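Design a sequence for this backbone.
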């Protein structure tokens, strides 16, 4: 090693400190290159679209929003009639995921997207607010009514 440093000093004109620094840099680069060949690279994180993330948050929100008894008393009675024994389970229209909305009678993927888009602009305060959505008329709303929970 000292021979190498002496040759660098005589042929290139480096000082002993400059030669030592260059030697250390060479050693570190060599070890780093070998290390990157031996140790596999960690996998990159997958990317999720913003809409997928919002749908996930909505589905989690609808499952994890228990209403305390004292809060329940302060909520105005805007809820609808109880659903029949057959049919979809009740859906909180302001927080339901696209999949949950599609369980409502007469609601497909396109209508579910329209509901989600409409509620991002303004939360539904009454079931009749759904009449503003293209594709939902009075008849369809009456089929959906037993399965919708507000607010």
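Sequence:
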């Amino acid at each position: 090693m000292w021979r190498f440093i002496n040759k660098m000093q005589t042929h290139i004109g480096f000082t002993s400190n400059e030669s030592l620094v260059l030697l250390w840099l060479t050693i570190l680069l060599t070890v780093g290159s070998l290390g990157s060949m031996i140790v596999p690279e960690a996998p990159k994180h997958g990317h999720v679209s913003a809409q997928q993330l919002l749908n996930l948050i909505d589905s989690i929100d609808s499952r994890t929003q228990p209403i305390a008894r004292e809060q329940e008393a302060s909520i105005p009675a805007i809820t609808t009639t109880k659903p029949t024994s057959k049919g979809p389970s009740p859906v909180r229209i302001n927080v339901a995921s696209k999949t949950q909305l599609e369980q409502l009678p007469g609601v497909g993927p396109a209508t579910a997207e329209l509901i989600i888009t409409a509620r991002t602009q303004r939360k539904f305060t009454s079931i009749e607010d759904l009449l503003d959505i293209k594709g939902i008329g009075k008849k369809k709303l009456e089929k959906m009514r037993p399965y919708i929970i507000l607010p």
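The chain is about 50% helix and 5% strand.
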